[in-house]
Write a structure and sequence with these properties.
The protein is α/β, with parallel strands linked by helices. The protein folds into two domains: 4-117 and 246-310 and 326-390, Periplasmic binding protein-like II (D-Maltodextrin-Binding Protein, domain 2, 3-Layer(aba) Sandwich); 119-245 and 422-432, 3-Layer(aba) Sandwich (D-Maltodextrin-Binding Protein, domain 2). The protein contains 20 helices and 14 strands. Strands 2-1-3-11-4 form a five-stranded mixed beta sheet, sandwiched between helices. The chain has a five-stranded mixed beta sheet with strand order 8-7-9-6-10, sandwiched between helices. Strand 12 and strand 13 form a beta hairpin. Helix 7 crosses helix 8 (175-186), helix 13 (262-280) crosses helix 18 (372-379) and helix 16 packs across helix 17 (360-369). The chain starts with 8 loop residues before the first helix and ends with a helix.
Length: 434
């Protein structure tokens, strides 16, 4: 029996349509506003940074006060404690918050996605050398071949009595955690038994790999290429290899703030939509890279950021190259639309890996995290039709999951049970409670 069919279907429809939300404010009612926004130094904060730097927010009467943070836990807490009005957040964070998961859950909603793409999995050069021997890999090895070669190394290490590999993710409720687990499991590796997963803040991943504190990590740009250019890591898979349109970062806010400031929310969405369109244009990449490279934002070499924006990768210390079309999509294809079916896919991963149970209440809570009605209110006819809210994910030829699975939001239980590798118990609380 699936979970979605047990929801009161009228509730799901009302969530998508926006019933029960406050009516739009009269234009000009709230006046000029300063909106304080927390962010992590990653390229996928580009839309927020561009909105502040290139006049898109100011055009809508908003001053974006951007505050750089070092960890997702800090972003979560400062939003909850009203030190931020909005925040650059991992796409699963609002879902986790509405489910009451984590050490400081506070209601959080996402009316806007900040784009797609940007993640990759990087393993240490030493570990990759072991994989080459175990799996006969060449420079063109696929993400699945790399995962299977890692599985062979893990089996050999276990037979020799060596400790499990330590792999870094940026946050327990993150696309990085679920994508790393998805990749590992596709290769036959149990993420909870065969390796040790730890939390490492994004800017520290390359240093942790260089110091041998971890054997690999999944993180957003530019930190994967920073590791490969330093000669300490090899990029073995990207987000596009695992699932091209997997949700990445969103604009998070407290629901009561959105209710109290409806016009500001709409104006902010309009500004971010314009900034996202600008970020997508190839002719703007040089200016965007220059802005992102500043120390107050991402603080990474401008050449690396420019190449990352273009999807041009140095994947290993030997200088092997890979070009990925649309590695970052900031606007095209409704990349900013907070699709409820993607919130449900995130929920399915939380269930798959033992972070929560599958229930009608959990499904409804997950749906309440993404607010397409606020997006539609701001953008009107520019938004996708309501029929797109509960799309079957991974069914299009150019948008497949790496293992061939398809996610139907009406069949969540069947989807989870179809995987041969999944949790049988809750993960280590030390990871879950960070």
């Amino acid at each position: 029996m699936n979970a979605l069919t047990h929801i009161d279907q009228s509730k799901a429809s009302k969530l998508a349509a926006g019933d029960g939300l406050p009516a739009p404010a009269i234009a000009g009612h709230e006046g000029s506003r300063t909106v304080r926004a927390g962010f992590i130094p990653l390229v996928d904060a580009a839309v927020l940074i561009a909105a502040a730097e290139f006049g898109f927010a100011q055009k809508e009467g908003i001053t974006l006060d951007l505050v750089k943070e070092v960890s997702w836990a800090n972003v979560r807490d400062r939003l909850a404690f009203r030190q931020f009005d909005v925040a650059h957040m991992l796409s699963p964070m609002p879902v986790a918050a509405m489910l009451g998961l984590g050490s400081n859950p506070s209601p959080t909603i996402a009316p806007f996605s900040l784009g797609r793409g940007g993640n990759a999995i990087t393993l240490s050069s030493r570990l990759y050398a072991d994989m080459q021997m175990a799996g006969d890999l060449d420079a063109g090895a696929t993400a699945l071949s790399n995962a299977q070669a890692l599985a062979a190394v893990i089996r050999r290490n276990r037979a020799a009595g060596r400790p499990p590999l330590t792999l870094g993710v940026t946050y327990p409720f993150s696309s990085h955690n679920y994508e790393f687990r998805y990749w590992l499991a596709a290769g036959g590796i149990d993420p909870d038994r065969d390796v040790k997963l730890v939390v490492v803040p994004p800017p520290m991943t390359s240093d942790a790999l260089a110091a041998s504190a971890i054997d690999g990590f999944c993180v957003g740009a530019p930190w994967n290429m920073v590791a490969s250019e330093r000669g300490v890591g090899r990029i073995v898979a990207t987000k596009q290899d695992i699932w091209p349109s997997a949700p990445e970062k969103v604009l998070g806010m407290r629901p009561e703030w959105a209710d109290a400031n409806p016009e500001t929310v709409s104006r902010l969405i309009v500004a971010l939509d314009a900034a996202a369109r600008w970020c997508d244009a190839a002719e703007n990449r040089a200016a965007l890279a220059e802005a992102l490279a500043e120390q107050r934002y991402v603080g990474a070499p401008v050449d690396i950021i420019r190449r990352v924006l273009a999807g041009e990768f140095t994947i290993d210390p030997e200088g092997n190259q890979r070009v990925i079309d649309d590695y970052f999509v900031f606007h095209a294809g409704f990349a900013n639309f907070p699709r409820p079916s993607q919130a449900l896919w995130i929920y399915s991963q939380m269930v798959r890996w033992g972070q929560t149970a599958l229930s009608t209440e959990g499904t409804e809570a997950s749906l309440s995290a993404y607010r397409p009605a606020l997006y539609r209110r701001a953008l009107g006819r520019l938004a996708p039709p309501a029929m797109d809210d509960f799309a079957v994910e991974g069914a299009m030829p150019d948008d497949r999951f790496m293992d061939g699975h398809i996610f139907d939001p009406k069949l969540i239980r069947d989807y989870i049970e179809a995987f041969p590798v999944k949790a049988t118990s809750l993960p280590d609380a030390s990871l879950d409670d960070i």
